[in-house]
TrEMBL record:
InterPro entries: Marvel, Synaptogyrin
Gene that specifies this protein: Syngr3
Organism: Anthoscopus minutus
Entry GO terms, CC: neuromuscular junction; synaptic vesicle membrane
Family: Belongs to the synaptogyrin family.
Protein name: SNG3 protein
């Protein structure tokens, strides 16, 4: 696709691409997870103590980890959304390869982080004793767990799409090199040969020479 570099960006077509829709989906999921934890998962245990506790078994690490993964995914989606937008403008094949590999590594890493977040939050939620205060944030806690699970699926799909793009780029590179001979001294393949007889009728006068007037009659070119 490097040959298309410099072409105009069509926002409508870009927004219709499956990869763009997946980016937006993961972006929304990340907002739901860390937004739910920040806004509703810090509650009073029984209403008598003013201290706010993490609803996930009073484990501050569970809430902090969920927020951290959500924030990382939030900004990661924005970054790769911009990379996808300007990907067709990248003319260097090496830069394109780095972008695809970065996408592959980041997507796989986020899928792993979300898997850990889902397991961590679900485990702590099972150990949570619902008091009157904790019951107020139960829906938000379940939402954080559910969308953590959904995020695993979407990030795995993004990683597989990045892997597919990388393999496609590798195959195209092999295709472009197989047309040349393996012998280092082999010549560059030329155009298909004709009949072997050159015709002078195929040659034309150089540009801007047809307007020149012929030599005046009687004038001879001096010999040197």
């Amino acid at each position: 696709g490097a040959g298309r570099a410099g072409g105009a960006i069509d926002p409508v077509d870009f927004l219709k691409q499956p990869q763009t829709l997946l980016r937006v989906t993961t972006w929304i999921f990340s907002i739901v997870v860390f937004g739910s934890i920040v806004n509703e998962c810090y509650v009073n245990k029984d209403g008598h103590h003013p201290e706010l506790l993490c609803i996930f078994n009073e484990n501050e690490s569970a809430c902090s980890y969920g927020i951290a993964v959500g924030v990382i995914a939030f900004f990661g989606c924005i970054f790769f959304f911009v990379v996808d937008l300007y990907f067709q403008q990248i003319s260097s094949v090496k830069d394109r390869k780095r972008a695809v590999l970065l996408d592959l590594g980041f997507s796989g890493f986020l899928a792993f982080l979300w898997f850990v977040a889902f397991c961590f939050l679900a485990n702590q939620w099972q150990r949570t004793t619902l008091t009157r205060g904790f019951s107020q944030g139960a829906d938000a806690a379940r939402a954080a767990i559910a969308f953590s699970f959904f995020s695993i699926i979407v990030w795995v799909v993004l990683a597989l799409r990045a892997l597919q793009r990388y393999r496609l780029g590798t195959d195209m590179s092999l295709f472009t090199t197989e047309q040349f001979g393996t012998d280092p001294s082999a010549s560059y393949p030329g155009y298909p040969g004709g009949s072997g007889v050159e015709s002078t009728e195929t040659y034309q006068s150089p540009p801007f020479t047809e307007t020149l007037e012929p030599n005046p009659k009687g004038y001879q070119v001096p010999a040197y």
